Description:
The structure is a homodimer. Chain A contains 5 helices and 11 strands; from the N terminus they run ββααβαβββαβαββββ. Chain A has helices at 37-41, 47-53, 63-66, 116-128, 139-147, and strands at 3-11, 15-17, 58-62, 90-94, 102-103, 109-113, 132-137, 153-159, 167-168, 178-185, 190-196. In chain A, 19% of the residues lie in helices and 30% in strands. The first copy, chain A, has one domain (3-73, 80-196): Dihydrofolate Reductase, subunit A (3-Layer(aba) Sandwich), CATH 3.40.430.10. In chain A, strand 5 and strand 6 form a beta hairpin.
Amino acid sequence: MAYVTSDLAVSVDGFVSGVNQTLERPFGDGQGDQLHRWMFETPDENAEELTAITAADAFIMGRNMFSPGRGDWDPEWTGWWGDDPPYHKPVFVLTHHPREDLPMKGGTTFSFVTGGIAEAFERAGEATGDGRISIAGGAATINQFLAAGLVDELRLHISPITLGAGERLFDGVPPLRLEQLSGRSASLVTHITYRVLR
Amino acid sequence: MAYVTSDLAVSVDGFVSGVNQTLERPFGDGQGDQLHRWMFETPDENAEELTAITAADAFIMGRNMFSPGRGDWDPEWTGWWGDDPPYHKPVFVLTHHPREDLPMKGGTTFSFVTGGIAEAFERAGEATGDGRISIAGGAATINQFLAAGLVDELRLHISPITLGAGERLFDGVPPLRLEQLSGRSASLVTHITYRVLR
């Protein structure tokens, strides 16, 4: 079986983004953009955790993480990450709208999956030869994988804000037993890694 | 002004207790009792944080933290903590039902306040000479103090479980800006201390 991880930047109250996400404000109104301050302002302090985020053999993400649009595809949109996305591996994007594979520079290929998390999980497993799959977000996608019992390791990166509303990690997920594998605080974030127990 | 702290044992999804709290199961159904495993199973590892929880000059708590009952007082009930509660200072209990002061061994006196958080805050401030006040819980009480902007320091003790339902920290509290003062992981818990910014 593949080993499935998920890295999530969350507020202290468990949100991965605020309300009213737009192209200009992909993390919504209010303080949502503060969730990633630690990445941009203190990368050296957090080098190990940052490297681990993209150290997988394949990635799965929800459409909302790939694109601000909904409905039919805008073929000009190739993700938030420019020509050379940081994944360098196959990325499976959950969507209701079929689209051709989108190969990018540096080894990233976005493939668009219309069969839900089961199909995405199967295709990522095939692509990795049962290696490491990262569920890249957003909350709705991770919550589906958590509820299905498909996540082995959850890595939370907790920023010192509360958002009060938005997309919440664990919404709709039955209670979980976790094992705390590690944790440490840097100046703008606390990292905690949990193993999800079955 | 008094300096106001609050220590909270929370699940990863931000609950301080599960649903259906009873005398026998004060933290509710399911895994709620696991929130305090770190206190009972690994006190040596967490000695500093445990000491800090009761290092205040006065305490404020909600009735639900003092007593499993509701409505009129059962005069036999003197709290969960036996003859010599761990507070050793004045403790102000929020309630709608007046009751005489209840002095205990070791310096703890429970006083029952019917005027809401404002009266409790004022009386605790008088009792401490603007020293240290700890908001001892539960979530409904802390959330009221947070919403009123009366908390200076929030100390979370995060246990490796999710509860999915129950009493949630930050419910009804407008978004907060926090400063992460410190954080560390022990084997069964991660402690994070935040300063609440105004």
